[in-house]
Amino acid sequence: MLRLAAFAVTSALAAVAAGPLPPLPLGRLLAGPGPDRLTIEMADTGNRRLDREFHIECDPVGGDHPWREQACARLDQLAEEGKDPFAPVAKRQVCSLQYGGPATARISGTWHGHTVDATFRRTNGCEIARWNELEPLLPTGRS
Q1: What is the residue range of 79's domain?
Q2: Computed over its alpha carbons, how large is the radius of gyration of the chain?
Q3: Does residue 107 lie within any of the structural domains?
Q4: pTM of the full structure
Q5: Which residues have CB under 8 Å from 117's CB, separation 6+?
Q6: Domain contains 106
Q7: In the beta sheet, which residues pair with residue 104?
Q8: How far apart are CA 55 and CA 68, in angstroms?
Q9: How many domains does the chain have?
Q10: Smallest Cα–Cα separation from 75: which of 141, 140, 135?
Q11: Which residues touch 66 (CB under 8 Å, ≥6 apart)?
Q12: Is residue 86 included in any domain, yes or no?
């Protein structure tokens, strides 16, 4: 037991004698979670060009989404307004019985360091408004 205590004291003194620890890589810590990367799968939009999978990255802008710069700008705008563009419609929300067609979209990936897995449809007024709020990330895709 005495040997173990002597080893601990010796190790602690050796660490102090060695000097300060090297600096932490704060650049990585301050840089944030990395680029936003999203996959958008669209179906039944009534437009064959839109019924497919798109990829988009923001900061820096990249991917194959046809309006990637505008889509990233829209996401930035929603973030500045403090909105979560991928939040579902509240369960107790009263929505009009408007039908916008059978179009669906699924968005998955990461945004501002958070995992995204959201489904969009145009089945009532609330869902249509939610979809339209993300335009041009989600093109109108009206059927």
Answers
A1: 34-133
A2: 24
A3: yes
A4: 0.73
A5: 106, 107, 108
A6: yes
A7: 43, 121
A8: 9
A9: 1
A10: 135
A11: 54, 139
A12: yes
- 109, β-bridge pairs: 38, 116
- Spatial contact of 121 and 104, defined as CB atoms under 8 Å apart: yes
Regarding beta strands 36-43 and 53-58, do their DSSP bridges make them parallel or antiparallel, or are they unpaired? antiparallel
Sign of the Cα pseudo-torsion (78, 84, 90, 96, in order) = positive
Residue 59: inside a domain: yes
Residue 73 tokens read as 């700008």
pLDDT in tens, the chain (143 residues): 544 444 444 444 444 455 554 444 443 344 456 779 999 999 999 888 889 999 999 989 999 999 999 999 999 999 999 999 999 999 999 999 999 999 999 999 999 999 999 999 999 999 999 999 999 999 875 44
Q: Which CATH number characterizes residue 73's domain?
A: 3.30.350.10
